[in-house]
Design brief:
246 residues, 21% strand, alpha/beta, four-stranded mixed β-sheet, single chain
Amino acid sequence: MAHDVLFGIHAVTTALKHDASRIRNMWLLHGRHDHKVMKIVDRAEAAGIRIERVSKQDLDKLCSNGVHQGVAVACEQIAAKSEKFLSELLEGLDQPAFLLVLDGVTDPHNLGACLRTADAAGVHAVIAPKDKSAPLNATVAKVACGAAEVVPYVQVTNLARTLQSLQQQGVWITGTAGETDLDVYHADLKGPMALVMGAEGKGMRRLTREHCDQLVRIPMAGEVSSLNVSVATGVCLFEAVRQRGN
């Protein structure tokens, strides 16, 4: 099974808290004995995780793409959830479904940021197609700041078919498109719903768009014609949160 290297106090603490069984090895910086690190050591020892003290040079090599703060772990990759999981999740909800669909988001930084926003907004699951989507790797986990471990990420074989199935279960599909006249602040985002965000530049694929019940846009006042997908996701999700809280 493939392994990722997670690093940084927050990322490692979150992995230990939510799924310590994924961690296979831990590396700690020689001479680091402060309170934050010792709390991590206590959790790791309680979970039976092997701990290795290493030099700063060795830790820098392990974490060449970021700031490790003196701690890193080797983790089994987080597994995406199945379509069966999604069906069981929807059946077990005691409140209106609140879903985020990502159509063609391939950048792991954007996926991580979207997962983080989805967690903050109370989204029940994030759905993406198996093809042309970012995997749940270490970069996603780092950017998500713990959300990758707690927000279900469901990868489906046929996104259009999944959207159709959601509609049959009473879920209203809201897509985002810059050319529509309906802005997100005047759209009805209450009740069971799935918000669909397309890839930057290309937007949603044609079949995805055809399965949307409504299309909304974010009104733009300046020269910029569009927002980063993770920023746009935050704007739309929290407008839905505002409406659903009334």
